[in-house]
Each structure stands twice: as C-alpha cells, then as structure tokens.
Design brief:
Blueprint: H1 5-11, E1 14-17, E2 32-37, H2 38-44, H3 73-81, E3 87-88, E4 94-95, E5 98-101, E6 106-109, E7 114-118, H4 122-127, H5 135-142, E8 151-155, H6 156-162, H7 178-192, H8 198-208, E9 215-219
Parallel strand pairs: 1-2
Antiparallel strand pairs: 2-9, 3-4, 5-6, 7-8
Helix pairs in contact: 2-7
C-alpha cells in the first residue's frame, strides 16, 4: 500500500539538517530523514557524467504487487491520487474516477488516459548510478510507494512527451509546476543516492533561481 508523504517521513528514524557545503559527500543511512532548503539538497548531490551502457527497461521490474493485496503499484498510485475515487472491480480493475495531471494542468476522467510517471525516469536512474545496483534495489526503485514524489499519475500525452528526458531538455508544459517539479526531482535523486551530470545541475540551478528556497524533507531509501 502506498504511504502518504507524512507517513513516510514519520517512519524514518533520524532527522538531520544537511550542511550547505557544495557537493560534499554526505553520510547515508537508509531510513534516515534529511531536512534542508532545496538548494542545499541540490548542493549535496554528487556530480558525475552519465553512462547508459547496458541499459534495458526490464532491468527495473515493475509493476509489482509488493503487499499482495491484489493491486499493482500502478493501481496503488491511481487509487492514492484520485480526486474522485474510481470503482475497484475484481483483480483490482479500476473504472471511473477523476485525476488531476499537474504536468499539463488537466483533469482526466477515467484511468485509461493516465500514465504513472517515474519522476526520475528509469533510464535516467540507470545513467545516474542504478546500473550498479542489484536487481532487488532496482525493483524497489521502480515501485517506490514510500515517497509520494517518486511516482505520479499524469496524462499519457505529457508523460510520453517527457520520455526519459531530464530537466536539461524537458520541463512540464504547465509553467506553474516547474518549481515543484525540479524540487521533487532533486528530492528523488537524494532519496536514492543518484548523481547529476553538469548540464543537469545547471538546468536545475537555473530553474531554482526563479523559485523559493523551500525546506524539503527526504527519507533515504538507500
């Protein structure tokens, strides 16, 4: 079952204020909670060139039914994010309901027009360090219900226009969502210990220059 953001934070065992030292190597402990202004969190992300050698999407097993309640990760996200609840039939088939797609500022009736987006795409995660993870850790990443920023229900059109791009080349069509998007991107990369490349750092910094330096809380997954 998907954990709401407050529950995910409460489940973490430690709270730590991140130092502002640029790109210093922080000590990581899974379950630890980090709290800091978003620009300080960005400064903690390691910088490295990306490497897509050997990537294939099936290296990230999804959508699974981790809690064996009959609903896959996709269905769990749809149920959690519905603004008007869908009906749930046998084998967790969902019908009806309504969702809001923040990427393109649209309301969508029924689940058929929705994709579940990995905020940091699977290919981008691979490029940024997941290529060195064991299969079980990649599966956990692809089905991350422990932080509601990791997976998001959005219109299929907006998700497919994004594909595997990072903020260097793609931001949501809804300009009012840009600050939230890059903040969540930074949070997700910190949560999973993923790196950013130099052009990605520049794009994130440029967008954040137009945003409030809001405090964020990240529960480390690894």
């Amino acid at each position: 079952m998907r954990l709401p953001r407050t529950a995910a934070i409460a489940a973490a065992v430690t709270a730590l204020l991140l130092p502002a030292t640029a790109h210093a190597a922080a000590v990581r402990d899974p379950g630890q909670t980090l709290t800091a202004p978003v620009r300080d969190v960005l400064a903690q992300l390691p910088i490295a060139d990306e490497d897509r050698t050997g990537y294939w999407r099936d290296a990230f097993k999804h959508w699974v039914d981790a809690d064996r309640d009959g609903c896959s990760t996709r269905a769990e996200v749809l149920k959690a994010e519905a603004i008007s609840a869908p009906q749930q039939g046998p084998r967790c088939v969902l019908t009806g309901g309504q969702w809001y797609s923040p990427y393109d500022d649209r309301y969508i009736d029924g689940p058929q027009g929705l994709d579940i987006d990995h905020l940091v795409p699977l290919a981008e995660a691979w490029d940024s360090g997941a290529n060195r993870w064991p299969a079980a850790e990649r599966e956990a990443y692809a089905n991350d219900l422990g932080d509601d920023r990791a997976l998001i229900a959005v219109s299929a059109a907006s998700n497919r226009s994004k594909a595997d791009q990072d903020p260097t080349s793609w931001l949501p069509p809804a300009e009012g969502y840009h600050c939230q998007y890059v903040t969540d991107w930074i949070d997700d990369k910190m949560r999973w210990g993923l790196s950013i490349d130099p052009s990605e750092e520049a794009a994130l910094t440029e967008t954040l220059n137009h945003c409030s330096n809001v405090p964020v809380t990240v529960s480390l997954a690894r």
